[in-house]
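Page 47, continued from p. 46.
Same chain as before, 151 aa.
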Amino acid sequence: MSRELLHLTVAAIVYFEHKFLLVEERDKLTGQRVLNQPAGHVEQDEDLLSAVKRELFEETGLALEPSAWLGISQLKAANGHRYVRLNIVFEPTSLPAQYQPQDSDILALHWYSATELLQTALPLRSRLVSDAISLYTEGVRLPLSLIQPTR
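Result:
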């Protein structure tokens, strides 16, 4: 596999008052509106936790601190690319009164319970979205200390 087809990504699994935060965006391949966690690529010279906090802020306007992680997910997408995704948990006890996406690619923010998410008309960007929510609801929590800092 060519390295150009391998992508290291991070996703923010934000859970507040029994609901998950999802972003509405357009799938770049199909143009269809889809739901995803705030997520994106790790930039060159960026550590994993800085990357997920940056993506969370860009896509939602929220500056939060992570509390745990759910592990690593992998996906071979329809475009032939392979995505390796670290799912980082954020469990804020409060949120600012107002926040909004900083990235123009984000069309809207939505809060859904796991049950409500099954009933929404919008499709999920990929199975990675539902896999992360399943891991969270199953009680998986890995300590952030297992993610070694860049040295």
